[in-house]
Fold each of these.
Amino acid sequence: MRDSFGRNINYLRISLTDRCNLRCKYCMPEEGVHKFSHEEMLSLEEVYEITKAFVDLGINKIRFTGGEPLTRKGIVDLISKVSKLKGVKDIAMTTNGILLKEYASDLKAAGLNRVNISLDTLDEEKYKTITRGGDLFRVLEAIEEAKRVGLTPIKINSVLIGGFNDDEIVSLVNFSKKEEIDLRFIELMPIGEAASWAEENFISNDLVLERVKGLIPIPREDISSPAVYYKLPNGKSKIGIINPISCKFCENCNRVRLTSKGQLKLCLHSNREIDIKGALRNGEDIKKLILDSIGEKEKSHHLEDGEYIKRNMNQIGG
C-alpha cells in the first residue's frame, strides 16, 4: 500500500489492550485506566480478521503492543494464527517484560520473532518508582529467557527523563554491551499523561552522544526505522537514538496503528482515528476503508490547534 506521498505502508502496530500490570508515570495514571466492556474492545477473532485484511493489502511487518500485551488472554494462539498468514515476514512485540519469562518459550513456538523490552533504569528502587511498584529483577530474568529461546534481536527501549535516568546513560550502554543486546534511547514524548510534565523533564537524546564517547555511526539498513544507530568500538550491540520531538522522521514513515478499541491511527501525533471496528461489525468492506484511509495519512506529525494528543500511550499502543 502506498499513501498519497508515495510512502510504502507495510508495518502495522496492534494494541491488544490498554491495561497494564505497571503504572509508569509517563504512560498512565496511578489509579490505572477505565476498564472498557468486552463489547467496546476488539475480540481476538476480530483482531485476526482485521490483521488478515491488512496483510492481504501488503502489510508484512506486525508488532503487538499494549498497555501490556501479555496481559491479554489468548495472545499465544493469536500469534500462532497470524504467523501462518501468507506474506507476514516479521512478528514482534513490545513488552515491559514482567510476564515475559513465563511466556517466552510458547511465544517463540507460536511464531513470534523478537521482542522490545521497556527498561528505563537499572536501579531497583528507581525502577520501582518510575513504574509505581515494578520488580526490576523479573525484567532482567525475562531478558535472559528471551535470549535463551531465541526471541532476538532483543531491543531495550529506554525513555530518557531529565533528573531521573540521565545519570544512567553510560550504565545502560555498558549493560547492553555486556548482554550483547541493542539499546534505544527514546525522547520523552508529551503525550497524554506525560504532557503535563514532559517539557520540564525533557532532554534531547544529543546528551547520549555527549556522554558516551567513541560511538560510531552505522549506515541505516532500514530507512523507515525511527532510530539512528551507533556502535561501540569492538562492541556487538547497537545503540539507537530516537528523536520524535527534536527530529522528525516522518518522510520515511511506513506504519499505522490499530488500537484495542478498533480505531485506526494513521499518525501517532494526531487525534484523528478511523473506526475499523464499527465498519467490521456493520459488515462493511474494511479493505476499502483501509485503502481510503491510507490515502489520507498525514504528511508529518504536528500539534493540532497547539495542543498535544489527549490519549495516553497505553491507549494508543507503544
Amino acid sequence: MATALDVLNVARSQIGFIEGPMNENPYGIWYGVPNAAYCAMGISWCFSRVGLSHLVAAQTPKGFAYCPAGLTWFQRQGLVVNKYQAQPGDIVFFSWGSGVAEHVEIVEAASPDGLTTIGFNTTDKNTKEAANGGGCYREHRPYLYVMAIVRPKYPVPVKPTTSVLTGKKATAGVAATGAAVAGATGMLHTAPNTQNASSNKPQTLFVAPPFPSSQNSFKLGQTNDAVLTIQSALVKKKILLAKYATGTMNVQTQAALVKFDQTLGIIVKGGAVPQIVYDNLKGAL
C-alpha cells in the first residue's frame, strides 16, 4: 500500500529536471495541459505514479492544475493543518501577497525556521519568482509565504517528524540523508563467473553509486563510477557502443544521453544529467 514516503520518493527522483522551451515538460503533457505552469501538475503526477491520484483529484481524476482550485478542494474536506506542524508528504500552498494560492510544493521535512520542500516549475529563490521557475528543485522555504498546508488522506499515516536543522543546513541535511539512503540501497553488479573452478581469483564487483552531489561529475573528461553507471546502462539499452563505456565522460556518451532524454520526454540543457535520468539508467542495470 502506497504511503506519503512513496510519493516523496517519486518527487525526489525528479529533482534536477529542467524544462524545455515555452515551459515544455512531461507533467503538463501527461495531464493534458502542455506548455503551461506545471507546479500543481507535477505534484499530481507524483501521486499518480504510486496510484494515489484520488487523494489530489481536485479538478480531474488525475489531480489539479490550478492552485486556488486545489486549495479550495482540500479546504472543503477539512484537510488544512497547522502550518507549524507539517509532516512529510503534506502539500504546501504559497502566496507572495496576492491573497490567493500562487504555487504548490510537497513537504519533505520541517525545521524551526521553515520547510524543506520539493517543487515543480520553480526556482531556488524565496520570492514570487519561485511560482514560475524552470525546473524541479529541493528548497528550504520560510513560513512567511506559506498560505496553507494540507494533509491528503494517505492510507498509512506518516509519523510526525521535525528536523532540528535550520536554514540552508536543513536542505543540505535532507540531501545528505537521501544520498545515504540511496547509497545503502545501491545495486550491486557482479560479473559472470567465467573462471576455472580451481581459480581463487575474486570476481569483479561494481557498486553503482548514488546520484552525485555535483554536476561536475558528468563534465566532459571526468572519470568516476557515476559516469560508468550511466555508460553501462546506455550500453545495455543499445544506445551506446560498449567500447565507449570507459568510466570517463566522452562526447559519445553525451550524444547517447540526448537520445535517452528524448525517450523520457524531457529536454536537458547544457549536458547536465538530472537525477531523474541517472535513476532511470541506474535502475536499468
Amino acid sequence: MKRIDDEAGLAALRLASLAQGTASEPKGPPDRETLALAVRWTLQRLAEQAPGHALEVRVPPYGAVQAIEGPRHTRGTPPNVVETDPATWLALATGELAFSAALAAGRLQASGTRTDLSGVLPLV
C-alpha cells in the first residue's frame, strides 16, 4: 500500500473530526473518501509508531494493519485482534476516547493477550 503523506492524512483527520462534531453536539459522518483517508493514515501511523506483527488492528471497511512487537503471525486468523468501527477508531487515535472505555462500552472487540493499545494511543 502506498504511504499516505502526513500532511494529507492530518488534514483528512481534521476534516473527519470536524464533520463528526462532538459528543454533546454531533453533526454526522464525514464523506466516505475523507473518512477512508483519515482511518488509513492513522492505521499507518500505528504501524510506524508500534512496528511488529503480534497484533492485527482492523477498521472495516477501510483497512487493517499489523503492529506491536512480539511473535509473528503467518497463517489463518491472528491470535491477537482488535476490531472497531471508523468513528471509534478515530476517537481512539486522537485521544477523544480511552481504549479501556471503548472496550468497556463494547465499541471495539479485542481478542488475545496483546490487544491493549493504551500504551500506543493516542497517535496524534
Amino acid sequence: MLADSAAIAANRFGLGARPGDLAAIGGDPRNWLRAQLRGAPPQVAAADLRPSWDTLAQALELRRDIAEMKKQARLDPAMAEAQQHKLGQFVRPVYLSEATARFALAVGSERPFLERVTQFWTNHFAVSIDKQFMPGLAGSFEREAIRPQVLGRFSDLLLAAESHPAMLMYLDNHLSVGPDSDAARRLERRPNGRRLGINENLAREILELHTLGVGGGYTQADVSTFAQVLTGWSVGDIRGRFPGGEPGKFLFRPEVHQPGAKVVFNTRYPDSGYGQAVAVLNDLARQSATAHFIAGKLARHFIADEPPHEAVSRLAGAFIASEGDLPTLYRTLIEERAAWAAPLSKYKTPSDYIHSAYRGLGLPVEAGKGPLRPFDLLGQRIWQPGSPAGWPDRSADWDGASALMKRIEWADALGARLGSRVDAQALAPELLGANLTDGTRTAIARAASGEQAVTLLLAAPEFMRR
C-alpha cells in the first residue's frame, strides 16, 4: 500500500478528510472503506422533509388552481399571474430544506464512501430541478428511490428509480398513451377527439443513460417498442383525461397501456400490464452491455478520466458474476490497484470541492439559503444538472480558468471569514497527508496572515484534486 493511501481513501473514495481522519484510517484504508458498507444506508434527517407523494399531490392541486385562474384571466389577469407564482413559492422551500439536509449529511457523514456512492447513483439517474415540480421532488427522489437501494442489487435500484413519480414526471411518461389503448380509443370517439401518442423520453434514457449506454446494441425500434411497454406507468390523480389513484403516488393505468406482446432487445415479452415493463428492466439489468457501462462510469469516477481497460473489465466481471450486487461491485473497486496507484488523478467537481472544504475546516451547515450559495457560485447547484445525462465527470468539464478563479475567490472569502481561527499550517497535513507538496507547505508557512494561509490551502493544486 502506498504512503498516501489514507489520503486517497478519504479524498477520492470519501468526500474529503477531516482533522483526525487520516490517523483514524491508518495503514488499513481498504478496511476503513469496507466497514462503511455494513449496516443500513444512512438517511437524511430534517424535521420538515416531506414524502414525494405529499409534495406532488399539493403541487398538482396548485396547478389545477392555476389552470382555473387562467380560464378567468380575461376577467382578472392579475389573479392568474398571482396563482402562477404560487407553485414556485410552494416548491422552493421544499428544495431548500432537502438540499440543506443532504449537504449537512455529506459534511458530517462518518460513512463518506457510502455517501459518495449515493450521490454517484443520484447523478446516474438524474432528474433536474429546472423543470416544473422537480424542485419539490428531487430531494425526495434521492431519499426514497436511491438511498434505500445503494447496498442492494442494481435491478432493484433501477426499478425504484424508474417507477418513482419524480422520474415519471421529469421524463413525461405520465403523458404517454398507447394509440390502441382503451383510453385513446374512447377519446377518439368524442367530438374533436384526437389520437394520443407515445412519449419516448423515459424509454430512451433508460437504454441510453441508465442501462446499456450509447453503443450498447439497442436500436431506435427498441426505444419505440420499450416506450409502448412503459405506457401506463404514471402518477395518481393527474386530473383531466385520466383521473384516479392516490394523489402523487405511482400508479399503473391499464387504460392507457398499449396492448399486446412486444419485442425489446431481441426478447419477446407477453402483455402482463405493469409486469411487462418490470420484466424488461430486470433483463436490461442483467445485460453484459449494462455491466460494462456501469463499470466504466464507476471507474471514471473513482480512478481516472480515462480509466485502465483492465480495471473496467474487472468491475464489469464482478457485476455479472454477482448478478448486479452493488456491495460486491464497491468491494471490487476498493481492491482495484489502479484506484490507489494514481493519487490526485481526478479534478474535484465544485460539489466535491465544497464538501471537502466544509469537512476539512469543520464548517457548520445551517438551515436556509446561505450554505447552498457556494454551489450556485461555483456552478453545480444541487440536483440541477440541466439534463437527464447528469453532471459530467471529467476534468475538462470543470477546470477552466473562469471556474478556477471562482474557486479562488470563494476560498479567499472563506479565509477572510475564518481569519486566525484556523491554523492552516497545522491543518494541511491533516487533510492532504502525503499528497501535500513541499511547495504548498512552504507557501502556507510564509503566508502574510492566517486568512491568507487558509486561502492558500484551499487554492492549492492538491486540494483541488482527489
